[in-house]
Specification:
The protein has 170 residues and is an all-alpha fold. 65% of the residues lie in helices and 0% in strands. Helix 2 runs parallel beside helix 7, helix 3 packs antiparallel against helix 4 and helix 3 packs parallel to helix 7. The N terminus is likely disordered.
Length: 170
Amino acid sequence: MSETSVPSQAPADSGSAQTPPSLQAAGAAAPATGIAPAAVAALLRRGRDLDRLAGCLAVAGLFGMAASWSAAASQPRLLWVLCVVSIVSVLPQKYWAIRVALDADLFRLGDAAAIDTTLGALRLMPANKAGRSWDARARGALRLLRRQAACVGVQLLVLACAFATLRWPA
C-alpha cells in the first residue's frame, strides 16, 4: 500500500485573497479601495433571505384575509384592505429580489465587462453607467438590496397593523 502525498497549498498573498478567481486567472488586481466584488456578492445573496421572509409574510396576509371573514376581526374591512396591501407589496419586492440575485451572480463572476454587457443587454442599466469603478458598482448593487429590504419592511409594518385589528381571546 503506497501513501499518496497531498501537495500543500501555498499561502495566498494579501492581494489575491480579495480578488475573485476569474480576475486572478486574468492577472487583474482587486479593487484598490472599497469592498471586494466577492464580498458584495456575499452581501447581495442575503436578498434571498429577504425574499423568503416576504413570501412568509404574504402567506400570513392570506391568513389575515381569511380571518377578515370570520368573527375574529373587530374591523373586517380594514383587516382585509391591509392584508391585500401587504400581499400586493410583495410584487415590487420580487422585482428587487430578482435584480439583487442577478447582481449577486454577476459580482461573483468578478468581471466588470460581463456585468456591463449583461445589464445593458437586459436594459437594466443605462449605457452611460458602463465602465464604472467597483466602488460605484457596489454602491449601486447595495442600493438595490436596501430597496428590497424597504419593501419587506413596509410589508411587515402593514401586516402588523392588520393583525392588530384582530380580536384576541382574553
